[in-house]
Amino acid sequence: MTNADILNELIIIYRNEKNIKTLLPYKTSIIEKIYSLIQSQQTYLNALKKNQIIKNIIEQELDTAKYFLKEYLKIRIKKLQIYFLTSKDLLSSKEIIFQEKIVNLYKEKIFM
């Protein structure tokens, strides 16, 4: 899979998540690939010295990847705050922790 393919896949899962009211299954494989892409491109960017055109292209790709990753995760957090009783099967490990904290806060609020 090329960097462009990975980025396109991220954009697709972002759009799907944005356009559907409930939470969709967390896409672990593509998110891991995006994190890896960001890390490797950042390392490559830091190693580049002279070629400003290539640096600009890589910076643009990095900015795009970071933007869509951030927006995807923000949408999921917002949905999880609303649909906090969502099945754990749809969530990442960090989202499960967040979900448990939300549930505990609601329990505390109800039983106070």
TrEMBL record:
<dbReference type="InterPro" id="IPR008591">
    <property type="entry name" value="GINS_Sld5"/>
</dbReference>
<dbReference type="GO" id="GO:0006261">
    <property type="term" value="P:DNA-templated DNA replication"/>
</dbReference>
<dbReference type="GO" id="GO:0000727">
    <property type="term" value="P:double-strand break repair via break-induced replication"/>
</dbReference>
<dbReference type="GO" id="GO:0000811">
    <property type="term" value="C:GINS complex"/>
</dbReference>
<protein>
    <recommendedName>
        <fullName>GINS subunit domain-containing protein</fullName>
    </recommendedName>
</protein>
<dbReference type="InterPro" id="IPR036224">
    <property type="entry name" value="GINS_bundle-like_dom_sf"/>
</dbReference>
